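Onboarding guide, step 5: your first structure request.
Type a short instruction followed by the sequence, for example:

Predict the 3D structure of this protein.
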Amino acid sequence: MAIRMKVRAVLAVGAVLAVGLVLGAPPAQAGGGGCHMTDFTDQRGIQVDLKGACFIPTVLRIQPGQTVTFANADEMTHTVTGVAGSWGTYDEVQPHASVTYRFASSGAYPYFCAIHPGMTGAVVVGDGTYSKTTAQAAVLAVPPSVPPSQAAPLSAPVQSVSEGVSSAWRTAAIVAFGTLIAMALTALARMTGFRRRRAAAGV
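The system replies with structure tokens like these:
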């Protein structure tokens, strides 16, 4: 019975690790990475900083027709994705790059980072009330920027690129999951052999 419990525990842990690897995030991030700030910030302005896996400020207030720049100050990529895909994209904003959206209509526009659970924010336009919000209510105003380099200046407009899960992560996930299954099968075989020996000995 104890062996069976250990086998189940190994399989459960292995499944969690494999899912995290397949999703393209290290296990620590897949387990709930994201903003851990305790301060909720509510400000007026035209820029949101992506810093420490947080959107700062948490709530940004603007007037209809204004643009908001989302500037990634982290050393990791993030996304600016409207809830239910209502605005923004799943494209990654690279470190030290930015993306700008224009908000035409009054309303509340919650959003999140698809890579880091817990990294959420909202743009409140006007008084925050609206009769209908469409995908056209928030539109890309400036193409995403790229980090500064010798090859291109910071303001150089480029097409955003969405990158999938790397083949290295997929391979690691398959190897890890296969190893765990092999361990579980070995443990089950030992348990079966132990039972047979006990039965043969008449215990």
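Each response can be followed by summary notes, for example: The radius of gyration is 24 Å.
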